Amino acid sequence: MKRWLALALVLALPALAQEALKVGVVVSATGPAASLGIPERNTFLMLQDLLERTGGVAGRKVQFVILDDASDTTQAVRNTRRLVEEGVVAIVGTTTTPASLGMIPVVAEARVPTISLAASKDIIHPVDAQRLWVFKTPQTEELMARAIVADMVARGVKTVGYIGFNDAYGEGWARFFEAEARAKGLQVVASERYARTDTSVTGQVLRILARRPDAVLIGASGTPAVLPQRTLKERGYAGLIYQTHGVANPDFLRVGGADVEGTLLPAGPILVAEQLPSGYPTKRPSLDYIQRYEARYGIGSYSTFGAHAWDAWLILKPALERALKRADPAKDLAGFRAALRDEIEATRGLVATHGVFTFSREDHLGLRFEDSAVMVRVEGGRWKLERTFR
Amino acid sequence: MDATILGFLLLDGLQNGVVYGLLALSLVLVFAVTRVILVPIGELLMFAPLSLVWLLEGKLPGTLWLALALGGAWAFLARGREALLPVGGGLGVALLLLLALRVPALAYPAAVALVVYLGAATYRVFFQPMREATVLSLLIMAVGLHVAYMGLGLVFFGPEQFRPRPLLEGEILVGLSRQGGLVLLFALLAVVGLYLFFRQSLFGKALLAAAENRLGARLSGISPQEAGMVAFAIASLLSALSGLLLAPLINAAYFMGFMLGLKGFVAAILGGLMSYPVAFLGALLVGFFESFTSFYASAYKEALVFLLLVPALFYQSLRARAVEE
To answer: Which of A35, A197, A203 sits opposite B295 (nearest CB)?
Structure first.
């Protein structure tokens, strides 16, 4: 027994000497959210290589412990507990809103700073005792809804119909969009729901058409967002069709084909990075990320979702450097985690790929509408920049 | 509501209803012959168009390996001369798929053959060994297979939707695409074909006899196992063809089968899992009901459709006598 202990000590010593900083990562690399989670995981694999070449953060090695939650809340919570026990200094993740919400009580109890990669505002708002530990990088529905309404107003739209998923995504969009639209004097004349698995939305579309709206917003994500749009086209709708940023992936264009030509949608500026005007703050970091990602995974392989993961690291890295000056994770892990949380919250004007982050005690999203959302149009099967809000 | 909207809703309901109808007919047939409630019928439906998309892109679909694995188990269980069918069938399907990689036109029959083989193998490997089990055990097996097949669908084909090109482009009349017309035509042909099969052919009559009275059929020399396999094959054929025709209209994805199968099941329940015509009419009712609820109260559509079950089950339970198995 003693000999084993001694051996274990000998093996552990070099590891202790290097004191690699462990950062936990939870993503949905399999399951329904895999198309979002895979680029996020790839981004961290790429970062790991990069850090090994450049020597880590402030002279310390950094090790990402990447776990897959299979798009499942229970698994995400289990992974989180495991990461906490492994002594990670911070956690990044996870991909989906429900699983991220499930992680909040766990990370708050263990007092580990966490940066979520999911969309919903509920993850970071209001900043109460539990959410004190939680930040996030993707734009909220509220922020994107603002972009859509601003675009509608600029185009002289007066009446608008809404059709969305009958789940958290569609309901969230209905709530934020309808509130924002009313505030800006638009009239929401129809609000319909459909299921991801539905095989027909003719009834809902007919009801919307009967109200003759100037524009229709489809509150859905991924390829199931195509069906209402195709049905609208088939029934001869000639007004404007808006989608949400949940469709900003190549699969939507592949399945939609000619049916989604002319679609308007809000998106993080990185979706059209090359087309951004040269003064746009996020242009340079976006191009940098895309170039690195495509060099490793192939031309055209990058997605906006992987960029959320990149942004999380852009925020975490300087915060780690500052926190390392205040506390030593090897001696006082709890103290270091608390210092790291404070330093993340102290982030000001950090230019990333999806916007400029400025956190505060009340704001754990940190993005300003003006430089974190642009309007994009589908043209010739590609994304084309329509307008920025700067 | 005006006449145009009414017309669109009726057409939409009809198009969905006939597909539920074909699934309901398959469910009733399989239940009558084997007492299995074929929950994974939606997955068999889903496998067809997704395998087709893979073949058309020049890739071998994962369903082939599943079919070959099940075929291997089938051959192992059968042994001897009986094993000729699974081995020959498996080789035939594999060959057809390989050919389909070169000749796109062959992809359609290849996808259908694959699913039919998979359906028959599913019966032989999972359900025939437990033919003496209770309806509940068979149902648990069916639910387990549904979950497993859907999970495999996700592994094989990924989380996103795919849209095979429609066989016919354009519209017959406003509100009904040519492809939609094809679905209706296929449903009509399938119903007539099933009717002729059961009324005119000896094989069909034997199947009906096996459904009516297992022991009696056995005494007159009809093998219930063979009948079960034929019932599964017919159900797989109908669902594979429905899936192929439907996919260009609704986009195919690994999760598409469950709701379709469930609504077919609602229709089959309306027919008491016994009557073919009532099940089919029930399916049309579900289709129309769904279409109209999606117009009037889209947020509650699913709940309302499944609420249809309550009066149907209530009526059935009032009518039911205790029947000895």
So the answer is: A203
A348-367 as b/e, with b when 16 or more CB fall inside 10 Å?
eebebbbbbbebeeebbbbb
Q: Give whole-number Cα distances, A326 to A336, A350, A371, A381, in Å.
A: 8, 21, 32, 51
pLDDT band at B53 (very low <50, low <70, confident <90, very high): very high
Query: Which residue does chain B place closest to A211, by CA atoms?
Result: B1
The string of pLDDT tens digits covering residues B128-159 is 999 889 999 999 999 999 999 999 998 899 88
Residue to test with chain B: of A95, A173, A206, most B Cβ within 10 A = A206
Residue numbers in A near B5 (CB within 8 A): 206, 210
Name the residue of chain A whose CA is nearest to B288's CA.
A203
Least trusted range by pLDDT, from A91-100, A185-194, A357-366, B221-230: B221-230
pLDDT one-digit tens code per residue, A233-248: 988 899 999 999 989 8
- Find the residue in A nearest to B176 (Cα): A234
- Alpha carbon distance B97, B110 (integer Å): 6
* Amino acid in position B181: G
Integer Cα distance of B141 and B125 in angstroms: 12
Q: How does pLDDT run across B73-100, given as a tens digit for each residue?
A: 999 998 888 888 999 999 999 999 999 9
Quickly state the pLDDT bin for B188 (edges 50, 70, 90): very high
* Phi-psi sector, A167: left (phi>0), alpha (psi -120 to 50), beta: beta
Interface of B with A (CB under 8 A): 5, 8-9, 12, 15-16, 19, 154, 158-163, 175, 177, 246, 249-251, 253, 255-256, 258-260, 290-296, 298-299, 301-302
Q: Which amino acid is at A209?
A: L
* Whether the predicted pLDDT of A193 surpasses 90: yes
* Residue from B2, B152, B160 whose CB has the most chain A CBs within 10 Å, to mutate: B160
Q: Which residue has the tokens 């679905």?
A: B183
At residue B52's C-alpha, the angle toward residues B47 and B57, to 5°, is 130
Instruction: Give the span between the Cα atoms of A65 and A68, in whole angstroms.
Output: 10
Identify the bridge partners of residue A127 per DSSP, sorted by sequence position.
none
Residue of A199, A201, A230 for testing the chain B interface, max B β-carbons within 10 Å:
A199
Q: Look-up: residue for tokens 């006899």?
A: B209
B278-281 contacts at long range (C-beta below 8 A, 24 or more positions apart): B279/B21, B279/B24, B279/B25, B279/B27, B279/B28, B280/B21, B280/B24, B280/B25, B280/B191
A13 is written with which tokens?
């010593």
- 8 Å CB contact between A312 and A352: no
- Tell which residue, A307, A290, A315, has the closest CA to residue A365: A315
Q: Can you tell me the mean pLDDT for A151-164? A: 96
Burial of B275 (0-12, 13-18, 19+ CB in 10 A): middle
H helix or E strand, kind and range, residue A255: helix A250-256
